[in-house]
Amino acid sequence: MINAFQPMLGDDELAAVAEVFRSNWIGKGPRVRAFEDAFAAHLGVGPDQVMTLNSCTEATFLAMELAGLGAGDDVVLPAVSFVGAANAVAAHGARPVFCDVDPRTLNPSASDVEAALTPATRAVLVLHYAGYPGDIAAIAELCRARGLLLIEDAACAVASRVAERACGTFGDLGVWSFDHGKIAVTVDGGMLYARDPELLRRGRKRAYFGLEQFSGFDHAKVTDTRWWEFEVGSFSRRSIMNDVTAAIGCVQLRRLPEFLRRRREIVERYDTELAGLPGLLLPPAPPPGHRTSHYMYWVQMEEHVRDEVARDLYRRGVYATFRYPPLHRVPIYGSDARLPGAEHAADRTLCLPLHQGLDDTDVDLIVETVRTSVPRRSASAAASAPASAVRGA
Ligand SMILES: *Cc1c(COP(=O)(O)O)cnc(C)c1O
Q1: CATH assignment of 257-379, among 2.60.120.380, 3.20.20.70, 3.90.1150.10, 1.10.3380.30
Q2: Is the CB of 56 under 6 A from ligand 1?
Q3: Is 12 left (phi over 0), alpha (psi -120 to 50) or beta?
């Protein structure tokens, strides 16, 4: 089976893990710090503006707490968001309010965000769909003008930039994921950025039982006895990263340019070899100055054609999927919004496999299957549907 997403791990990661094992320090330690420093440098921010966590979802939950969001607050997020983001909002008692997205890019524009603002809106939580920065500069400007917090879910956008500014650093808080399906992985892991380093000083305590100091021994003076005693400042949990996963992360971050190069090659092949196929739309080119991470490659077709093409790919051993089904249609979030852009996209979009482990033969098979399936399925959909439905679609 050709996977839609897949990590690439090798001997360098194994050697880094072996070195951690030999050190006898597998918990949070020097490699976590090294990974945070390397990631801060990659983003172009200060080392005190990032902290690791055991997942991106945990980073989003923590971001909600550090932002002080809760009951009575509305948080606007695109309908095409990851479930973990909406859960973080709702779990803290705030209300997720979904805004529409552009049907072609699946990212919200600043006016989509603006249209969803309510008198109770305190924050905006945006996703960079497929790694495309989207309208982030204008959304950041809107948030500044309205006094709203901006949180970025940059899980897809590990290397995305507008001009030289990294996605995830346009607002007050940003989160990244290094889970098994991302471009750079730590097996499981997340990163939280805060514009204000003071927030992260609180965040680090929150991620470790609310302890006011992390290791009594580290802080003990020679004259201190009883360094084993501690002071608890909040009823917090344990959601820190460890040195084993951080060591993998350091290697993956070093290899990121190589991963991006291979992803770009595959995207260029899709772009050229699928261009002009009747009934198929390719992802729009990002505007000048925008750099994407090429996390997903999405194509669009008529509604029923999409499902048939996905099945044809599956029959030939290719797993294609759609990310992320709009959350305003998921009953638990209690939304009654009508969001035509998100709904249009949700019924027509398919994400083709895109990862640095795809070889040229894999890409050949995917391209060839799409090139035969789309025209065939489009023709049979046209033959069976009433003419008006086809015209209107
Ligand atoms: C993967 C992903 C997450 C969650 O990351 P975890 O590290 O698995 O918690 C959040 N948002 C988006 C957009 C993602 O793709």
Answers
A1: 3.90.1150.10
A2: yes
A3: alpha
